[in-house]
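pinned: reference chain
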Amino acid sequence: MTISAKIQTKSFLSYLALGVGTLSLSLSAMYVRWADAPGTVTGFYRLFISTIIIFPFFIKRNIAKDHLTWSKILPPVLGGMCMAGTFSLWNTSLFYTNVASAAMIGNISPLWVSIAAWWLLREHLHPQFWIGLLTLFSGIALIMGGNFFLHPRLGVGDLMAVGSSFFYAAYILITQWGRKRLDSLSLVWINGASACLWMLLVIILFKQPLVGFPQQTWRVFISAAIITQIIGYMAISYSLGNLPASVVSPSLNLQPVVTIILAISLLNETPSALQVIGSLLTLGGVYIINYAYQQKNADLL
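pinned: its structure tokens
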């Protein structure tokens, strides 16, 4: 296989993983609503159960090799702190605003990622990237505008979603840093274990229950752990090992679009006409951003 073919194969697998991760994470809002438990508690069990499931694989991969060092562990530990902040704020916001608003506002993180990649990491971004980003956020603005006309207020739920976007942007950048040192499985496990501890502190602080839930709630916890946490985050972690954060983060804005579509049938939340148009613009923005990335690679060859 030629070098060019290997690059194309790796690129295809990275985008495939990004698509799988996006679809998996699109179910997050559904699980939070279905769980009938505090948002932080749902987030904690999603992390805790997934951490237990992949622990044997983590041990098998790392203990024998004995290659874990503090410099490798630090990024996922910090990423876990950011993940805990994202889950705590975003999951809770779903009880104070509708899914469309929380999904879109919480996913303005590409703006912070792009600014950081350009300013702090000195990453050169193709001119078409900024066109795509502008198109993407025009779509998000329409979706938020449609929600504003239906619910004309910027409430505590929306502010929580904004806060979660900062934490998520930091998570994406730190994960990209961590993937240079660790494989996907090891990074996701350390990340999840760190986030578990931080979320447990939040739950204790706010005196929220950890037991006494019905069987249906526990089934939701387990399903969320497997689908959104293990499959979703391992897929995204893999893609971040081969694609830049400035591409992965905007692409994840497909997640709220899919969430809105799923919410129609699963949560009986129908989007407005503005939100439909905004979703189409968001899709267009993601396409332009990824096309710009491919053009940038072509220019380097």
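why pinned: The chain has one domain: 3-300. DSSP finds 13 helices and no strands in the chain.
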